[in-house]
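User: For my dataset I need records formatted as: sequence, then structure tokens, nothing else. Please produce one.
Assistant:
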Amino acid sequence: MTDEALSTVCSAKGCGAPAQWALRWNNPKIHTEDRRKTWLACDEHKDSLGDFLTRRSFLREVEPFSG
């Protein structure tokens, strides 16, 4: 798999499905307020990845992804 293909798949461990969602987050203890990191998610993992980030108060935005 190429780096380009890897960058458009779901970030859930072991998932190789195409990403449909971009979960934008930051850790306020180590990132500035405007800094955003991105996890990509397929439809199946959008909620579980989002819940993980939400429980830690890291999730900032969820947007459709069109790699």
